[in-house]
Request: fold
Amino acid sequence: MNPFAYARAIDAGDAVRRGAAQGARYLGGGTNLVDLMRETIERPSSLIDVTGLSSAIEERPDGAILIGAAARNTAVAEHRAVRTRYPLLSRAIVAGASAQIRNMATVGGNLLQRTRCVYFYDDDGSRCNKRSPGQGCDAIEGFNRMHAILGASASCVATHPSDMCVALAALEAVVHLRGAGGERSLRLTELHRLPGAQPQLETTLEAGELITAVELPPLGFATRSTYRKVRDRSSYAFALVSVAAAIELEGDTVRDVRLALGGVAPKPWRARKAEQALKGRAATQESFRAAADAELADAAPLVHNAFKVELTRRTIAAVLTELVEEKH
Amino acid sequence: MSIIVNGSPVQAPEDSRVSLLDLLRERLHLSGVKKGCNQGACGACTVLVDGERILSCLALAVQYEGRSITSIEGLSREGELHALQRAFIEHDGFQCGYCTPGQICSAIGMSAELDRGVPSYVTADLASEHIQASRDELTERMSGNLCRCGAYNGIVEAIQETCTGGAR
Reply:
């Protein structure tokens, strides 16, 4: 690990002032950043510890929930209002990592965690455009079973590893930011970039901008929602495919639906084409599979991950079926 | 400010790169805390921070100033083993023993999580305040602690004996 200066931010303003320095990075629980620093893939000159900033989880009068970016993953998953009003978010969080890591990891850090592509991590032995822009990508012709089938490019096929973000994408969560120029907010689905020709640019954050909170907008029908993660072992593994879904029924018809996918794309993947294909349709297996087909029409599988296309189709149908059969 | 380790104040390291794991093992000689993978994949380095289980390998020691750390060495009272330590012995919850301190610290943290109703991936009813400490719940909640000897049956039995969960 390279040497770095360490400072604790006393408030968001202090953090942003310190974060403006060349080579500065914000530090949450450290579960990803410390590991990457040990591998010298990340080499910050200073770390600004923001775990002392707001970790409050507040229920707003309009029904929204505001989560301070320093809230630990466990705190969000166990929060009563999250568990009962946004079950897909609780389930997505507890599907991720291990309990020890969820106790450490912050919400802000979860959003900004980096891919677990093994070629990205293999600094000594592999080429990676994300780690070393312009170098080439050894995953495209390599062992790419875990990699993306949607949204990838000729430069990068890495997936975004977060479970929590998949639920947040489905919920249309809003990310609150503070930077040198003041405060702004954007939707979670606008936070992460697709790789294109510049996979090293992973988010739309400005230099030194700090995530201060994540807001869950009111969504009544999210009480009928869940998250399912398909992986190589039943726990403590990254997703091959995951699905976050919420559905609103009117009789046997889909009145509204939210759908997002994990493990298949470079960013938390909001499945808008599938959503469009479902709205107003009968809540049947046929509609669910047709909606999945609409989303997966653009899928571009690699040598070792073609199985993900069918796995995604089946998981979408299974999750929607489970939700429709749920008693409410 | 200092870090409290098993009840005693300890100076945080000057070098900000020192992990909590290395502080405990290499500087304080608390060799019960184990370095397995050193990258957050095995759970051998699990310790309790203010009662919550974390991975000391991914923790920078400087971040834990003002916090209270308990390692396996801090669990016994006046020479008397913690109930879970005794249960591990009785149920053969180990072979080589390398993962055991992490397993035990993790299970103590897990028990507290279960008591306050933290859900897991296998919890059917998220609205429930009382989660039964079933075998499925325990194995899911302990999935962050690997045992390469495969002593899982004994580990689960030892934990089941001492951890009755939120339904007690």
